[in-house]
Amino acid sequence: MNTFRCTCGNTLYxxxxxxxxxxxxxGFLPEHLSQAALEDLGNGRWRARSPDxxxxxxxxxxxxxxxxxxNWMVPDEQEEIFCQACRxxxxxxNLKIAGNHAKWLNVEQQKRRLIxxxxxxxxxxxxxxxxxxxxxxxxxxxxxxxxxxFVDTNWSGGKVFTGHANxxxxxxxxxxxxxAREAMRQQMNEASRTLLGHFRHEIGHYFxxxxxRDGQRLTSFRSLFGDxxxxxxxxxxxxxxxxxxxxxxxxxxxxxxxxHPWEDWAECWGHYLQIRDALETAWALGLVRDRPRDFSHLIxxxxxxxxSINLMNRSLGLRDAYPYTLTxxxxxxxxxxxxxxxxxxxxxx
Length: 349
Ligand SMILES: [Zn+2]
Ligand SMILES: [Zn+2]
Ligand SMILES: [Zn+2]
Prior knowledge:
The protein is an alpha+beta fold. The chain contains ten helices and eleven strands. The protein has helices at residues 62-67, 100-121, 178-187, 195-213, 218-225, 232-242, 248-251, 261-284, 295-315, 328-344; strands at 4-5, 11-12, 25-29, 34-42, 45-50, 53-60, 73-75, 89-91, 137-141, 163-165, 168-172.
């Protein structure tokens, strides 16, 4: 994630909605991938400015005005009341249930990081409201009778399963509860489990449909990830019953990736987005000097940065932030994703 600058010169961050130096109200402009200082023009219209000058007139997203969960802006000439990220929402949590607003806010913040990833990499996507067949949409739902625990290995009535189906990404908002998510992480024996990680994994399934299946790349995909025609339900069942193969670390980024070629793809895709974003953050903060020139350069920088983050975490008494090993077979799959995103991504920085 980049950092941004206020018209007063102060450094701004992605989540800010007010400049702590000059007090200006702020809004994020997805068209410019930038924060802007806002001047109230009245009637719900705001002039947006960056240190480079006037960026035009905008309105605040309806989810900011009504619910205080969004800091993205809508260009005044557009009729939409929701910003580019909120327009993708098909289902939002029931806000009459105590605690749901806080969870939803957390979910929305992570979702905007995902949409930023996609915009920055120039990955092509549309909302379902524009294209029902190939568009993207989100459903943020809670279990019917949430007890603070959830099950995602077998179906029982009223349970919401985080996942992707035909462009619709469903997130069980209990994932926004730190205690419940950590309990699930331990139960599933995962190295890490985050809301943003869920978004990046599930969008991997979306782009598999778009770029691999619809993009006629099944042959090259299968040569690296295996044959996805393998029965998916059966593969997941046997993964949950028997666990991953003993030597999974040699070939997969996570144990779950070993369950089925689709999951391997989504895990690698999510990791790639994570690495790209973390390296942009490191660059924006001046922790690394260079922007990656190519994949091997990117991985060299990432090995250094991720080792540093882990050592910093240990100094602070925390677990490793990046508890993963990138073996050669995993890197082969990630370079495939890197090349694909480089070809399909229109806006590269
Ligand atoms: Zn300022
Ligand atoms: Zn919004
Ligand atoms: Zn998946």
